[in-house]
Design goal:
By secondary structure, the protein is an all-alpha fold. It contains two helices and no strands. The longest helix has 24 residues.
Length: 91
């Protein structure tokens, strides 16, 4: 990188022709995640959505294992019946 352009240099780099930048050193902006503007790239609704889908999948898997239901049918059974009881069948 030419000397007349500002840019990132590794800490401690004193390569050929390097001159220190004019002015005080600047630190990267401090944020809580490193996204644009110091904002996190994780959103609360996104994280909640992922958790809901994981729990829904676990409950649907219980229907497939216990009552020998197909997976798409078991997702609907989770919504209509919740967790399976030992005497419940599919549909």
């Amino acid at each position: 990188m030419p000397n007349d352009q500002e840019g990132w240099r590794p800490r401690g780099y004193d390569g050929p022709g390097w001159e220190p930048p004019k002015g005080p050193p600047q630190e990267p902006p401090r944020g809580n995640g490193g996204g644009s503007g110091g904002r996190s790239r994780w959103s609360v609704p996104g994280v909640v959505g992922v958790i809901v889908v994981v729990i829904w999948s676990i409950l649907a898997y219980q229907w497939t294992e216990q009552n020998d239901c197909e997976l798409p049918e078991s997702f609907g059974l989770v919504l209509s019946h919740g967790t399976p009881d030992p005497w419940e069948g599919c549909g």
